[in-house]
Amino acid sequence: MLEVEDQLRKYGEAVERAALVAPLEGPLVDDEPGPVGDSGRGRTRMLVALTASLVLVVGVVTAARQGRSERVDTANGTSDAQIEAEWAGYAVPAYVTDAAPAGMTVSATMSAADYDAPVWTMHSQQYWVEGKTVPEAGDHKLVISWFVDDGSDSALYGEPVTIRGTEGVFRKDVVTFVDDGFQVVLSSSTFSTNDLVDFAEQLTIAETGVQELEDLPGGLTALPVRRSMTYEQYGATVPFDGHTATYSDGSRELNIFTAPLDGNEQAAQWLEDVREVNVGDRTVWIRSNTDHPPTSVIAVWVEGDAQITVFALDVTEEEVLAVIAASRQADRAEW
Amino acid sequence: MGSNGNSDEFEEFAVVMRPRLVRALVGFCGVDHASDAASEALLYALEHWDRVSAMDNPAGYLFRVGQSRGRQKRVPNLPPPLDVGLPDVEPALIPALLRLPVTQRTAVWLVHGCGWSYRATAAAMETSESMVGNHLTRGIESLRRELGVAEHA
What we know:
Chain A is α+β, with helices and mostly antiparallel strands. Chain A contains five helices and 20 strands. Chain B is mostly helical. Chain B is built from eight helices and no strands. The interface between A and B is large, with 53 and 64 residues.
């Protein structure tokens, strides 16, 4: 048998050929014939055409995944409409903006109450999260996340992972296991892997189908279970227990999430290394990440009993601040 | 893109870079999506050509662009070796590769599946070359164990 390394090299060569065959066969775009290997301008146009197709597909899939696909004409506004801040059984208002960046329209909306299941699946950058709780005491923090096990991913979190934060690379211990249809991940930057294994043994299934600790170790205090989306690549976790509006122009993306504040200054806990700016009467915590593409901006503010988070990709900080300045509660008709 | 000169320069770059990116991204998007993810990355390079063309390691940077924009499922679909004309490659190798933790899989795939250097792989993974070595060692050990291959002395 060939060495494992040689097998991998041969396989790499073979799948490269398989992946390249289709796009390089036949005429290029604009009916401009071009032989395989041609390096002319048609190649660039082909790339653009391929990308445009991909963006379209991703948009459709994203909308379908989120369960609803509905265009909202934000330009018409709803100033005369009665705001139903607590519609759909959730005591959190939905938010939209009247100043979406040029070309961006609402591509999808979602409300937590649309889902009967105790958890739902959201897709972010290589990471799905349906639920999360963060018990903490002082500097110690334990993150328990869970999502429906699809039988294929349980090995991914079987070792300590390195996560890039805004202050550099730091190590984070992770323990994962699968139980009763859920994949559960315990992670902490303060507890050891052995501690996490001990904690995992104490986890039981709550009535909601969520794993929780019976006796929290080390004086930890449980915070409310949150539904959240983790943009691991950007070091951001966004709670979205309420409503979500997604704006897109086909390539750039901007999301407005709402979640209950639970009487605490929770918004600040989801963000590190932020600076505070005033946008009208609103105090906003904001952070930009331009270390690697696509650039990201995350901004959070509190309004009444809700926290509103804007997470945007390839959108400038100035555009995000304009979005926030023109954001307002939305009624059911706009959703 | 400011001039025809730049345009030609990009097209030459894209022709060379595209197969390299596709191969690297196959390990994350699968055969069916790697080409699109590479196109996404190259479009980004086209839009930011002044910046990308000045980079020491544009492949690693664009690999991350393709990864982040591809938004594919965490475990890609990869064809069995026999389906791509490789009867002498162990069929169990690919499922074993996909079962590796993502960091090990990335290191193993880029270094051995794609022939990338430790340095280029470290840049693509945003980590150090020594960490790449660690992931690689552990990943290859796991693969050998699963395939029942004896360890090297």
